[in-house]
């Protein structure tokens, strides 16, 4: 049992850090430090830099462009991206549709799509959630009816992140409404967003940002060749995603970076002419979050190194739920504290300057701008990706037999 | 001790609630927000008709002689619909400064216009560096003939963009943090030397950054060096009103959440049938009741001597902040995705509650103030 | 709406306070300040002093010795007792068996028992809970079988507070095991603790104290004349208690007194040669509890003054649950903080010096002695009298329709 | 990075767990508590046989060369059964002081006796006024010939009543709070001038108040004026051991609670079928996992330089305190009445966890220490 990083792992971290320092465009980094989401162009440009270096898809098999890194190396890579901060790989591409095509796709699908996914030649979005089917995915209603060489898709998806950027959408659709179980009769389709009959309606969130959308399908014709896996077996694809990426939800690197930002803000904000960071209570709150984040980081490393006793079999390990739960709670507590530190200026926050209803950012100090929008936006962290209530339920049922 | 409302108070409450029910449905609020000033001039006229705008002023000044309880009732009802109009800034803040600080002549000049809905007021108190300190003032007031000329920058001024009159704190003497040397000055909003940059704040209320360059005051309220006690009193009254407004908002948000729990189905059952959400709703109910109790306490303590009043209002602000955070966050969480979509009311209530916590000192600021007074018991 | 006490109410408070000051034995008060439970003799002596003054049973109808006070006066009286602190009226006598006999008893029962209850000539205990029937009272199993002029009682009661002091026990027993509903077929019996067949077994709690007991009934013969109300209608009596005493559970006066004690302790405890009360964090924690207690007190007054909107009908008011919940949480948070203030000495706490396993109290400072025992003992506050979970459930079901 | 145990570590763990399973059922623990020293001499002998007592000492001193991981495994297993024996005071505290502070001759004299179970040690550090400060020492050490004579009062000394040897901090120079001038002295427990009053502490462990009146030391560990760094190091090692012990106790308490939830029925169903209690159990599981992670972190950081080590161990103590409070309180709450009855194990685990929080500084004490180091980021 040696709980420290090895010399090789430390060297690897240095290599990654140096590469990011040398290659990440400064304005991308600054935008992210300010708490804003990178633009589509910034995300794509960075992914192409990584792809050129061979680091676009560390989690993929080497034959499809993966790096062959250990779990610890992949963790270090992700943490370095998060801490810089640099745009993270577009999850819909690299963590979702890519692995599914690798696991279930035809050779033709792999040949055509995988290189484009890696390089974000196609920006993908995810069509799973529907109105009335949030955490209860299996109750989805969007249907696809076979018509010759095509499926005809009708229905509605919601909470579709960055649909406005997307070239393609991967969807769960109902192909057999008569199936005995609700999970049966669902298929996994790849749909070109330029297809006639697709409408994207923006959903503006309370931070003023435009991240999510509703996507409507009205008689959309999808070639049968875009079916992934077997018809009516789309649930297998969905399940693959549930098992995937156990430690990413902890977002340790992101929270480290945001904590650093919080400490910067607390050095800038003043009360009675002194920086807030000098106040005992603020320091204690920061220290308390740092303790929690350290505990979370150790749990992540424990999982990565495979040393968890209960973790022999991936199925029986509650770690995913714990990491999601704590990761979101810690991230949210940082944004709460940012809001507190911003103080009155928090009320005047401009939101995403690209979004509607924004204020002139120059009226307020730069350090205070992102606090409120981030606080509001990150409420999603305990909702999306399986609510925190669902995580607690999973733990109780699956790991404690309650 | 008597918690019952008088017949008149009941009437006021039900008339206002009826008005708001008729005119302040959530989709209309969104429309009001896009009107030129960022709120509804028509509603402002209706408030005037109903007597809301002259309510707390003495009858001899042209008001209706209402007290803290009436203000509480109005604030709570406005909070229920997340009203956007500058009632707090005009009637409670600006009006409060006039009530307690202006001489009879000035009151009798201003109050009828306020009551008629013809004069909007804003309180330009905070400065970029001042955070929650009421005495951290660098704006200066300089004697000029028999008047005063102001110089400085005021920040995040609630409804400062549309106000006809600004009530501005400025330093006529003393150094930056001194308690003495502060005066409250009355300026026309469009006076030469007043530069106003307005914006919508995160909760849909309007704010403004105001730069004063040799701006001439119309009057000073009382003594130009002695205004801090007045400011503290009026800020405490505003905290009491904010507490009541927050209770209204929390109460509406709790009700919205209960509705959602009863109608939204998941896994084949209304989500309100899940025990965890039931108990969460109970915790919200407890938090609401605590806040309601403290809003009443605030009302009761406004007439007490300054030290007792300030401590009481700090306690109120702590409780309001904590209840608001719990109720706001849990309401959003239980609504799921639609809790953070601008198309639904819940997220707006959540944001207004967050803003109220930050207005005139957040829960932690006031907790520190209370902690400073804790001492060992004999 | 006037939210302050009237001049009459303030004068009444002064009268009560003066009487307590003049008549409460100093050593009783000191024992309670130290966080110890008054002895049986102390409780009885004080109740007799109150009884002589006509203040033994303020909540009872005047014809049975009640004071005719308003709800606010009764609250003031109780709060003054709690704040002094003085022993509170023995609840089993004055709040439980007394009101039940008043409501359901025969004339003979009233004549015989009520004066003795008032004066604690008989010390009563409560036989409701059973092993396996904690919050689920209706599942009780102790049975009473009619045999001529007697019932023969067999079974077991548990968590019986001060059974070791008691002369009598009032019990819920099952008289009709065949009843259609579980609540039917239960009767309310008064049982002399000296009856042959009764065994009391002490249950020592983790603070080292002896407050609760198990009471075993083995062929205990109880005269039929000791049945209160109708046979098989004992549930009505139990329900009377559930509705009773809405504001007492808040324990505002007790918490005020314990907060004062906490602030005394924090003035005595030192770190680095300075009293703990000078530490910002301790002060903030105390201030936070004071805020919560003030909110609770206002809620109590609101309920008392009858001004709650939802409170027109007693049945539809969630106040009882809120008061019980917050009252117990606040009291527990005070004991937590006492434990913190006591510091290392908390570990050496002597517990109740009358109980087993106690240490020599003179080895540690007086102010630190009661912290740990009280922290441990008061865990019961969120368990007994309807757990806090039950209170939340009641609120959700009865008042929010969930 | 490697979280796997070696084969030897696995064996140690399973042998110890087997021993405890055979001999430390809860009812036997209650019996041990009534034995003369308040714990089991027989168990102490078995620990010695298993090699626990010499484990962390170097082989050349007569030990078995174990490291922090071995100590963690032992502490966790002992925590699972709430073991009463003076392992922490003898092996971790006393033993740690000898390992890091004693010269080879003294080590080689003491260690074999410790390993054989023939020498019990206690660390007499705290004083009535010192609370959690390690440098607040008023006990004095005075040169007397070539030896030292001690005078003062030591308080709440863990297992001080039965210890054969006391390791006592005393001031040979400097003023009360000075970091310099502190030495660690070795005394026989029954030396003339040592008055010990033992008692059972709230968690069933033994404590003692010790008065030293011209008590003569057998040795001083290292320099008599320079002992604070040694004390801090050993206290950090003890915090790491306490963290692991707490993890064992929390883990057992969580398991006990799950058992209870599955077997105890109310309203016709196991109470574990109630969703609120299910989620509570999940929160306990999260708290346990956080504590476990930090116990490993503690183990990993013990060899780091003093400043990093102290900060890390403070973070550990904060997390352990918070997890312990949540798990302890919730376990009692879910057990209901029997959670606070001495006849059941849950309440004892709750009390031990509360005691661990208070030992060597509670969560808030260490949070303050961490907060002192927080600074603004660039």
UniProtKB/TrEMBL annotation, chains A, C:
It comes from Falsiroseomonas oleicola. It comes from the Bacteria. Residues 6-117 form the Acyl-CoA dehydrogenase/oxidase N-terminal domain. InterPro entries: Acyl-CoA_Oxase/DH_mid-dom (IPR006091), AcylCo_DH/oxidase_C (IPR009075), AcylCoA_DH/ox_N (IPR013786), Mycobact_Acyl-CoA_DH (IPR052161). This is Acyl-CoA dehydrogenase family protein. Signal peptide: none annotated. Residues 232-398 form the Acyl-CoA dehydrogenase/oxidase C-terminal domain. Residues 125-220 form the Acyl-CoA oxidase/dehydrogenase middle domain. Keywords: Flavoprotein, Oxidoreductase. The keyword Flavoprotein applies.
Automatic annotation (TrEMBL), chains B, D:
The keyword Oxidoreductase applies. Pfam families: Acyl-CoA_dh_1, Acyl-CoA_dh_M, Acyl-CoA_dh_N. Residues 226-373 form the Acyl-CoA dehydrogenase/oxidase C-terminal domain. Residues 6-118 form the Acyl-CoA dehydrogenase/oxidase N-terminal domain. It comes from the Bacteria. This is Acyl-CoA dehydrogenase family protein. Keywords: FAD, Flavoprotein, Oxidoreductase. Residues 122-209 form the Acyl-CoA oxidase/dehydrogenase middle domain.
